[in-house]
Design a protein that fits this description.
With 214 residues, the chain is an alpha/beta fold. The chain has 7 helices and 7 strands, in the order αααβαββαβαβαββ. The chain has a 7-stranded mixed β-sheet with strand order 3-2-1-4-5-7-6, with helices on both faces. The structure holds S-adenosylmethionine.
């Protein structure tokens, strides 16, 4: 039985590798020296939705490892801007980016982010965080919505009025009420599935503009 389930798992892994190595975005990421194919999701959203990230912009990148979003953001904000990234995992340093290895969903993680801001308010909060998948759809969905709620809670405290938020989420339990909650602070809100996001993946992104404090 153990032998049988092992070979099933091995078959699944090999199918994933096959799909991954044939993925055009993976090939392009390797060719262009990106840390991951996720870079194209962010650049596509920024460019196609005219989300201004320019010099002086302050951005917080939640769930930043291996760092492809932070690399793209740092290029755009230049030395007068600021990019702060946080992740549970360690990652190689990025010029112009303050990296924090901590759990965003803890008081310690958020205190380190606030310290790194050095009193500046944030123009854009981005989150590509996803929970570690347990295999239980409902549990994973609730964990995703929890990360979304924590992201919104953080943004409400540290975004500039007029600032923007971009976060990954999944459709399912808790999504509708979370979107309503997001709508109390941001208008308009858009659901985005970038071309670089696999069709087979349940992920999509919520873009909220023009933060209005309560
Ligand atoms: C899809 S990856 C992000 C890829 C990244 N945007 C890039 O371009 O390289 C999702 C990341 O979210 C991180 N993550 C998930 N939950 C987190 C949490 N509570 N605190 C910090 N990071 C978290 C994971 O460790 C993982 O590295």
């Amino acid at each position: 039985m153990a032998q049988q389930s092992k070979s099933k798992a091995a078959r699944k892994t090999s199918a994933w590798f096959q799909k991954h190595s044939n993925d055009p975005h993976v090939k392009r990421a390797q060719k262009e020296g990106k840390r991951s194919r996720a870079a194209f999701k962010l650049t596509e959203i920024l460019d196609e939705h005219d989300l201004k990230v320019s010099h002086h912009t302050v951005v917080v990148d939640l769930g930043c490892a291996p760092g492809s979003w932070s690399v793209e953001l740092a290029k755009r904000v230049g030395p007068a801007g600021k990019v702060i990234g946080i992740d549970l995992l360690p990652l190689d340093g990025i010029n112009g980016v303050t990296l924090i290895q901590e759990d965003f969903d803890t008081a310690e993680g958020q205190a380190l982010l606030v310290e790194a801001l050095e009193g500046r308010r944030v123009d854009l909060v981005v989150s590509d965080m996803a929970p570690e998948m347990s295999g239980d759809k409902l549990v994973d969905q609730m964990r995703m919505i929890n990360l979304n709620e924590m992201t919104l809670y953080f943004a409400r405290q540290y975004l500039k009025p007029g600032g923007n938020i971009l976060m990954k989420t999944f459709m399912g339990e808790g999504y509708d009420s979370f979107r309503k909650e997001l709508g109390l602070s941001f208008k308009p809100i858009k659901n985005i599935k970038p071309a670089a996001s696999r069709k087979s993946s349940a992920e999509f992104f919520l873009l909220g503009r023009n933060f209005t404090p309560e």
